[in-house]
Specification:
Number of domains of chain A: 2
CATH architecture of the largest domain in chain B: 2-Layer Sandwich
Shape of chain A: globular
CATH topology of the largest domain in chain B: Uridine Diphospho-n-acetylenolpyruvylglucosamine Reductase, domain 3
CATH architecture of the largest domain in chain A: Roll
Radius of gyration of chain B: 19 Å
Oligomer: heterodimer
Low-confidence stretches of chain B: none
Mean pLDDT of chain A: 96
Strand order of the largest sheet of chain B: 4-5-10-6-7
Order of helices and strands of chain B: EHEHEEEHHHHEEEEEEEEEHHH
Order of helices and strands of chain A: EEHEEEHHHH
Strand content of chain A: 15-25%
Distance between the termini of chain B: 48 Å
CATH superfamily of the largest domain in chain A: Beta-grasp domain
Number of helices of chain B: 9
Largest sheet of chain B: 5 strands, antiparallel
Distance between the termini of chain A: 47 Å
CATH topology of the largest domain in chain A: Ubiquitin-like (UB roll)
Number of helices of chain A: 5
Strand content of chain B: 25-35%
Helix content of chain A: 25-40%
Number of strands of chain B: 14
CATH class of the largest domain in chain A: Alpha Beta
Shape of chain B: globular
Largest sheet of chain A: 5 strands, mixed
Radius of gyration of chain A: 16 Å
Chain lengths: 162, 284
């Protein structure tokens, strides 16, 4: 029992060969085995959303998936959001609008927002607010997170669609 | 907060899943969406020796619609219902209900069938299945059987499924001409577990209710269908006065359990209001 399984994980377009116990959550695998500590672990039972990453473009709680389940999937974490030194519009909007204080929840909010806006770029402000209720922030009071995502959504909409 | 060790298998076919279930029985758990099972494992409330991941069984990922109703495969995620899956009141109602299930990222993984197999009394899909009289299809190496929803739930986290059976499919009857629905849920915050909720479906003919389905959830060890109150609604016009009467009788007919989130008295008040609002929506 509990022997390790060797798999390749595709994270932000890079292949990571890892040897992991099945019981390791994707969040732990990303942090400890891939060395990508941008994904934060808060509650470990799916409530806080700090560990949200994109799996095949869908935002999911990486504490509620096992690493072995992500074999063959395209995983995206906050480390892959910026384009080199150019921040993603969401990151820029969080910065400019004070969408973070301590920053612990920020990677989860960014990946949640990035995933949802890719699926549905035309979300209304109310829909954005509803989706953001998925994650917890203990500093900001949420207003500036909502504002940042709404502003980034407008900017992303104004860009030419690929 | 880390799961106990387990063996992980991800079979490629349904027959392999059934063979593994027959072999491991109570020592294994099926992993579909994992949005209830994995938290339970992280807390070590669940410690399966073997985890059978069915996410590669694509043949279980479907929604089929015909005149008799909807057939929902075991891998259908909550998010599949974000948009109406079938024209008419059933698809619209399922879409509204889905938006009340946890949060967007949870709905990308969690499954309709998993909710039923998990049998949480606060589950929206358990309320839908109970109120609409769903049929449950279970398969094992011994064969296939269909379970009426009235025989499916045994209580909190407990169902009629045998240890070697896989819930493969749910059948929901169609809601055709004249049906109107209403759903209302109380929870502490958006996405939280329901403290009380109600689902109503009424079939009107010339303004008169000819068929009625009324169910409540979150107030007992399983969703409850209020058949006596359904009978009271039939033959009337579901007037505001009648709806008030039914809501009061719903209040009198449930005996909620209390927990840290709500006292029994509070839940009772909530469920009466949920019934009133669900019926008012259906009658509007």
């Amino acid at each position: 029992m509990a022997s390790k399984i060797n798999i390749d994980l595709a994270v932000n377009g890079t292949s990571h060969a890892v040897s992991i116990e099945p019981r390791r959550t994707l969040a732990d695998v990303l942090r400890d085995d891939c060395g990508l500590t941008g994904t934060h672990i808060g509650c470990e039972h799916g409530v806080c959303g700090a560990c949200t990453v994109l799996v095949d473009d869908k935002p999911v709680r990486s504490c509620l998936m096992f690493g072995v389940q992500a074999e063959g999937k395209a995983i995206r974490t906050v480390e892959g959001l910026a384009n080199g030194d150019t921040l993603h519009p969401l990151q820029q909007a969080f910065w400019e609008n004070h969408g973070l204080q301590c920053g612990f929840c920020t990677p989860g909010f960014l990946m949640l927002s990035a995933g949802v806006l890719e699926q549905n770029p035309d979300m209304s402000d109310d829909e954005i607010r509803d989706v953001l209720s998925s994650n917890l922030c203990r500093c900001t009071g949420y207003q500036n997170i909502v504002k940042a995502v709404q502003i980034a959504a407008r900017e992303l909409r104004a860009r030419p669609r690929v | 907060m880390k799961p106990a060790p387990f063996d992980y298998v991800r079979p490629a076919s349904l027959s392999e899943v059934l063979a593994l279930l027959a072999k491991h029985k109570d020592d294994c758990k099926i992993l579909a969406g994992g949005q209830s099972l994995v938290p339970a494992m992280n807390f070590r409330l669940a410690r399966p020796a073997v985890l059978i991941d069915i996410n590669d069984i694509r043949e279980l990922d479907y929604i089929r619609s015909d005149d008799s109703g909807l057939t929902i495969g075991a891998l259908t995620r909550h998010a599949a219902f974000h948009r109406s899956v079938v024209a008419g009141p059933l698809g619209a109602m399922l879409s509204k209900v889905a938006s009340n299930i946890a949060h967007y990222p949870i709905r990308q993984r969690g499954t309709f069938a998993g909710s039923l197999a998990h049998a949480d009394p606060a589950s929206e899909w358990c309320l839908v299945a109970t109120t609409l009289d769903a049929a449950i299809v279970a398969k094992s190496t011994r064969g296939e059987r269909t379970i009426a929803i009235g025989d499916f739930f045994n209580g909190t986290f407990s169902t009629d499924l045998e240890a070697d059976e896989l819930l493969t499919e749910i059948r929901l009857p169609a809601l055709g001409q004249g049906w109107r629905t209403g759903f209302y849920e109380f929870s502490r915050r958006a996405g939280d577990f329901a403290l009380g909720m109600a689902l109503a479906a009424l079939r009107f003919e010339a303004g008169i209710v000819r068929e009625a389905r009324l169910g409540v959830g979150g107030v007992s060890d399983r969703a409850i269908r209020l058949r006596k109150l359904e009978a009271r609604l039939v033959g009337g016009a579901a007037s505001p006065q009648m709806i008030d009467t039914i809501a009061h009788e719903a209040w009198a007919s449930v005996s909620p359990i209390g927990d840290i989130h709500a006292t029994p008295e509070y839940r009772r008040d909530l469920v009466a209001t949920a019934v009133r609002r669900a019926l008012a929506e259906a009658a509007a």
